[in-house]
Structures are given as structure tokens and as C-alpha cells.
Known about the structure:
Layout: E1 21-22, E2 32-36, E3 43-48, E4 52-58, E5 63-67, E6 77-84, E7 87-88, E8 96-97, H1 103-108, E9 112-113, E10 117-118, E11 123-127, E12 134-139, E13 142-148, E14 154-157, E15 166-173, E16 181-182, E17 189-192, E18 202-203, E19 214-218, E20 225-230, E21 233-240, E22 246-249, E23 260-266, E24 269-270, E25 287-289, E26 298-302, E27 309-314, E28 317-323, E29 329-332, E30 344-351, E31 354-355, E32 362-363, E33 372-376, E34 395-397, E35 403-408, E36 416-420, E37 426-430, E38 432-436, E39 439-444, E40 459-466, E41 474-481, E42 498-505, E43 508-515, H2 521-531, H3 537-549, E44 553-554, H4 563-569, E45 572-573, H5 575-588, E46 593-600, E47 611-621, E48 624-630, H6 643-649, E49 658-664, E50 680-681, E51 695-696, E52 700-702, H7 704-708, E53 724-726, E54 735-736, E55 740-749, E56 755-767, E57 776-787, E58 792-800, E59 809-817, E60 820-826, E61 829-830, E62 833-838, E63 842-844, E64 848-857, E65 863-871, E66 876-880, E67 892-897, E68 902-911, E69 915-925, E70 932-941, E71 949-950, E72 952-953
Parallel strand pairs: 10-17, 22-71, 34-41, 44-45, 54-61, 63-70
Antiparallel strand pairs: 1-2, 2-5, 3-4, 3-6, 6-7, 6-8, 9-11, 11-14, 12-13, 12-15, 15-16, 15-17, 18-19, 19-22, 20-21, 20-23, 21-72, 23-24, 25-26, 26-29, 27-28, 27-30, 30-31, 30-32, 33-35, 35-39, 36-37, 36-40, 38-39, 40-41, 42-43, 43-50, 46-47, 46-49, 47-48, 49-52, 50-51, 53-55, 55-58, 56-57, ...
Amino acid sequence: MAREPRINDRYPIEKSLSPPVVGKPIPECSEAVYVSGFVPGATVRVFANGSELLAEVVCEFGFAEIPLQRPLKLGESVTATQTVENLTSTHSAWPVKVTALPTSAVKTDKPKSSGDIYQCGRIVPVDGLTPGVRVHVEDNGAEVGNEPTAATWHAVTTQPLTFPGNVRARQIACEGSGHEITGPWSDDAPVKAAPDPMPSPTVDPNTLIPGNDTVTVQQLLVGSAIEIKDGGALVSSGWLANGSGNLFPINPPLTGSSSITATQELCGRTSLPSAPVTPSGTLQAPTILGPICHGAQYVVVRDTTINANVVILRNGQTVGYAGAAPGDVVIALGSNIQLHAGDVVTALQYMGDTVSPTSHGVTVVGGIGEPAVELLGGEPFFLPKGEEEAIDGPVFPRGRGAVTIRVQACCTEEVKAELLDPDGTVITEVQLTDLAPGYFTGAWNWPNWPTDPNVIPVGRYAVRVTTGCDQRPVTVPFYVIFNPADVNGPSRFSFDDTAVWFASGVNSTKGLHYYLHPSDNRVFSRALNAVSGLTDSYDAAVAVARMEEGLFDYSLSYHTQDVVSMLTSFTEAQCADDACVLTAFMRAVGIPCHPVTVDAALETGAADWTFDTWVEFLAPHDGTTDWRILHPHQYPAMAPETRGQFGTTRDVATNSFNDYVIMAGENWVLAELDDGTNDVTCTRQACGQPGQNLTKAPWIVELCEAGYWSQTHWDCTAVRARSLRVDESLDLARADFGDQVEGVLRIVNTTREDHTTVVIVDLISHDSRSKAFVGARHGQLMAETVVPAEGLLELPIDFQLPRTLPPGHDLYVRAQADGRMLTLEPVPVTPRIDAFLDFPATWRVGEYFEARATVRNISGALVQDVIVSLDTPFALIVSGSEPGSSDSETLVRWAQLPAGEEREVRWTVRAIAPLQSGSAHLRVSTADGGGKLVPRPFRVTAPEIVDVRVGSKQ
């Protein structure tokens, strides 16, 4: 049954039915054209020269690639109409002339199969085509399908593909004519075996809007047959997947109680149904793009939702009626209506009875002093997240993506776009196509560059647009950076907002987040300025390191875990800060990079710091692409070194000073980072070396013998026995804050001579996030003594504990002799408070949640001056729960918390930006009962920005 247009009675069509827009270019011999700007379900007719009917189709969507009854001839004029409810629009307002065939492009451009293809599949997607050609596909040398295309990408429906097999494609223009042109074959694409069992697809919940008659299905195998059910009833069949995600029509439309599932089938094997999803999406307001000029007969609309009807209103009255389409949609006004200066234009979209809010209005202007220019197509990762400072132009990894130029000139005379290099020199002119009078689009791609894309300097480029009207030129920037894919950079170490570093405890380490903000202009601009004009990523990495080295003074203290915070609020940095700031800069310019942490041998006295952190970056140099090391904190101006060089020649990295070298692998587990537990622990051998096997999370990579240390480590044979050692533990009894703690230090002399020494015993608090071990000294005992030959000396220990400790700080007794560590033991102090945080592990951008903290006095005494706060990274905003409360009111203070009493604190938390991995921290401090730190790992998701196409009909 043919799809019928669904018109909401609140928005009758009358005279507002928009004439469809025919896409450009249309080369001669074209057998298909692209048409948009019509109502889904409309009957669309395509004409040559205004009268010859070349096609009549009922279109499922508001856009379509429509096959024609014959090839088009040079110079012919192509228009289209739409018919809805017995109303037919006028012909397209701007007939499209058939142009000469781009012969050289057909002859030289090699198409390519896009994406994986599968056994028994009946679809081969082909990219890199010339619009207007016919695409031929072969499987093991035999043709299995051919179809015309009006676009640069087309999914060819074929006979079932064989396995093993190799598929190739080519384009032929003006096939069968006297001037047929045949292009080269694509490279072979192997056919993959159909999985057994078949994986289940997933249904995208964002498209499940009541009233929608289209569903997006993800995790598809190309060529598989798709069926969609609503509560067990079949609502869509006869469609094939042509990508990993596709749009499919359903009938009947969704209701509020729908339960949608999907399956995919290859070789007679059908997957299990996807998890059922109930409609919960909402229809957002579309966006009218300005400026709109006096006399215009069209508007450009963004943010439409497929398969919505789109209504254009002038001063509240309907003047245009069409349908949603991918990207920006040019919608012509019905009945040849023209807009006038002062008119206010708005738009809305609807699906059945579900109607979006009305868009913001755009006022029609009499003229503009300069053309409005927009550049699109950059790497989405560099769009601002949350409250980040936006980069003023799109960012392109070298060799990837096309710079798409949109120009609204209110002028049709001599509109020209030029590409400028970082010095302002014109590289080339970009050909513009007028989609409507005064509205132009064009694209520049890497093959158009007059030299090898791999030697294009990175930096700030620009597009300059001029017109033949009385308008000022406009220059809009874009940025070119290195492409991590050129070195097979892991995604987690490339375009990712988070780095992982490690804080050290006693015989333990734990992973922590550092938020990098490569998409924040305060980070990006510094990095780009350092590498501008360079073509080699190795040289660029060195340049970035030299820049970063000049930003901060040396420190051993914890500061923050946010790069923007470091750049704007601090002048000193510890090693982890320097490493993560450098990592952010590297990733901002497309150089894969990650921190590495070494756990220092503090426990045995070989080092008097707890950890050190540096970076590894991936770049080609001297014919080898490898991870190399920079350590701006400790070794400014150092040249990049291999692991072997660094681990054997740099004191902070050698085996003699450290216990182990670790990093988070490229598949580090989001939920296990900063969850309140240690990620690495070790035992101690009698010689002081760590036990032979670390206890560590699987996502942690131990690098000791992966290039850093040439000799076998953790081996006691080369360790010299020490004269003094501690026998047993200190026997510290559990105590309360403010009480006395007592124990006994038993020192054994392993030699045959008396040993005179000074023994220093300290009561120390430590924040594991600080490289320096001593956060505060709360007491010290010092004794000059003699330990008898092969004898035992017992020293009593007696300290008064502090009244409290900050959240996240630990208390230790440290004993030293001869300037070396004898023992380091945690003090078993009893906290007087406990706390719990109710906090979601997964968020969606825009979602609100009331976070709830419970704080309880678990002692038998009053606790004084209790302060409760909730700290979150940039992806979340926290405010007090009271009406009108602000971000500054998120800290709660109680003068007293009586014994046994429990209190609750609530905050309103809103997710404002996507973040793959983060951690919220509940902090509770007291004046006399210790502190409590409660971490809660989380992630924030957002609708994925993907190019989801319509599936292919069988």
C-alpha cells in the first residue's frame, strides 16, 4: 500500500504547498535526479523542459533520488512538482539546466566500496562517484548489479554476494551512447562471511517520537534484510541495510504505547530481536537560517527531523509546506510568494499530532553589508562541550573530511569563494553552486589540493567570499591539524577528552581522571600556534613540548584535574599536571598521546617522592612510527626518547628509584576509574622489591619490561642487604582523632658491628594525588641511638593524633634511619562520620537528577563544623535544591552533628556536555571527626553525530 501524506488539520495546505527543489548538478546523460523540499508521501513528478514527464513516484520520505525514464540531454531544463491531497504545487521555482559531463572526473576518479559487505547481502555501497553516472558492481568478476546515481554515494542493490568473494565497482557515463565514458575499477573489497549467530541490531530511542512513521536502526550489517515490529506486529519489511545505521519507514506510525524491536537476516539466519524500545523522544523546533533577504522565495531550514512535515510561516501565516531532509533543507514558498523586508519568518515541524515548538523568528532584511558565510564539515570532536570557549572555525584532521561552504549573499552577481593558506595567499578558487537565488554552496576536498595532502602544513586556513554587489568581503577561518589515523592512533589516545594518571599510596596506585578540553579554544589555540606551519608531527610534538614547558613553575603538590583550570588559575604544576596539559595540547593538534606513571620506591627509601608522570606520543621519525617520551616537568628541552633510552638514563625512570611503570591501556574501563578502590597493589619481598606479580585491573598496562627496563626487575639477587631493618609491624592500636596512638618500633641490626644512627619517626598526613609525600607533619620523634650488633632495639612510639584530616587524606607513621626508609605504616584512626551518595552512573545531555548525599555521625560524640560539598567535572552543573539557589550555594555547613544523627543533602545536577568517563566527588569535612571522600564514576552520552541514510528497498 502506497504511503499517504499525513496532514495535521491545524496546518491546512491551501496555497502554501512548496514546489520541490531539484538538486544540482545534473550532467548530461543523467538517469536519476535528487529532489527535496516536498511532503513525505507526496506524489512527485519530474519534468523535462516543463512538459515532458520523466518520472512519477510516491516518495516515502521528504527527499529522494528519483530514476528517470530516459537519460537527460545537454541544455534541457528539469523541474518537479508535488501533489498532496489533490493539491499540486507549481513547478520548481528554479529549473535546473543539464550541464556538460565532467569527463576527466569520470575517467580518473576511482570509486570505492564504503563499509564492510557480507555474504548473502544484496547491497554494495559505493562512494567517490560522479553524479549522473551509472554504477556497475561485480562479484568475483561477474556483474551482480548496476544502477544510476544522482549523488557521490550510492547503495547498489545486487544479487546475493558470495563468500569468499571480492567486489569491485566502476562508473560509466552516457552508457550505450556514442560518447560513452568508462571509469577505472575500484580496489577489490572482500566479502565477509555472514556471522552465525547474527548479531541483534539496536533501535535508536531518539527517533521514537509518537506520530513518527520512521525508525532508525543501528548496528546493522550491510545487505541484511530488516524487519521491524511493534508489539509483535510487523510494521516494516522489504528493506535492506546499506550502512551501520539506517532509517526505515513503518506503518502504522508510532504511538505512545508502541514497543519497537528489529531483526536482521543474512543467508537465512535471522538475529534475535533487539531490546524493545518505547517512544520517549521529543520533536525539537527547527532552525531558520538567516539572513533572509527582501524578495526571497525560499528559506533554509536546519535541525529538521526525518520524517516530519515542515511548515513555513510568514507573520504567523503558512507560506511553505515541505518535508524534513538530511542537513540543511531549502524550502521554496508556495504559489510564488515573495518575502518583504520586515516580515518575520518562523517554522515548525510535526508528525501526526506531535507538533514541535515554533522556531525563533528571522526578520527579513532589505539588504546586507556582507555575505553570510558558514563553514561546515569539521571533526565533531572539536565542537564546544558545555561551557567551553568555542574554536572560531571547524577543525579538519589532515586528509579527512571536506570543507563545505554555505553562502547567503542576497546577491547573485560574481559570488566567489577563495581558499587562503596561513599566510593569506590564495591557494585555489572553490566552485560554488547556487541552490537558490543568492544561496550558494561549495566544497573543497583534499584531492583538490595542489600538492600531496600529507605535506600540507597544519595551521589556520580561511575561506574568503566576495561578491559583485556592494558588499564587504568576508573571511572565515578553518583549521588543519595532523590526522591520528595516519599513524593508526588509538581513538582513546586521540580525540578523547580524558587522560588517565595514577596516584600512589603504600604499595598501591589508583587511576584518576584528568579532563583535557582539546576542544576548548584556550587549549586548542595555544597548541595550534605552537605548530603552525609544520608538516611533520614529530617536529610538532617537540614544538608543543617547548611551549608547554614555559607555562608553569615546578611544584610537587596537587592542584586540579582539569586543563582549563590549570591554564587559567595556576602558575605552578606537578608532574601529572604538566603531563596532562601536554597530552591535551598534543591531542588538540591530532598527535596521539597519553600519560605514563611510575610508582616510586618510597616504601623502601629509594625515592622521597611518591610517583612521577610523563607522556608518550605517537609519531613517525627516522623511518619508524613509535611511542616516544617527553617529560617537560623534570627535563625541559629534552629531545624525544625511546622507552629504552628514558628508562635507563633518566634517574626518575630507572629501576633503582621505582617499583613499576604503568599506563591505562586504550581500552580502559570507564566504570572502574576512580571508584574508590586501588587499581594496582603489590606485596614486598624480603629485599624490599615488589612481589613478582602485581595485582592489577586488566585495563592497566605494566610497562616495566615493555622497553623501559632492560634487566629483569623485582629480582632480589642484585639488591644489597641493608644494615638495619624493621622487625614486624609497629603494633599501632586503633585510636580516635585527637587521642594518643602508641606503638613500638623494633629495629634489627643485621651486621656484626654496633650501628650508630639517628632514628626519625614522623606522624604524617598525605594526599595520594600529590607527588610530595609529606602533606603535613603532625608530630616527630628523634633519637640518636646505637643498635647492637646482630641485635634488636625497641623504641616506643607515642603521638597525639590530629583532631581531623581533610577528605581523601591518609595518616601514616614513617620511620627513617641513615636517611633511608625503615618502615611506613598507615595509622588505624577511627572516623566519626560516614557518607553515601546516590548518583547515576549514566546520564544523557540535558538530563536532570536530584543527587542525594546521606551523612551520619557514627560515633558516640558530637562532631563539630561539618561541611558537605559535591564536586563534578565540566560535563555536569550542580546547584542547590532550593528554588532560586545558585551554583555558589552547593556547599552545606552544619555547626554540629550530634552522635548517631543522620542528615541528607540534595542538589540539582544537570548534564550539559558529553563525557565518556568522569567522576563526581562527595566531600565531607569536619573540625574534629576526620573527612570522607566518596567518588562516583559516571558517563554522559549524547546523540551520536552520524550520517544515517535511508535504507534500500529490496
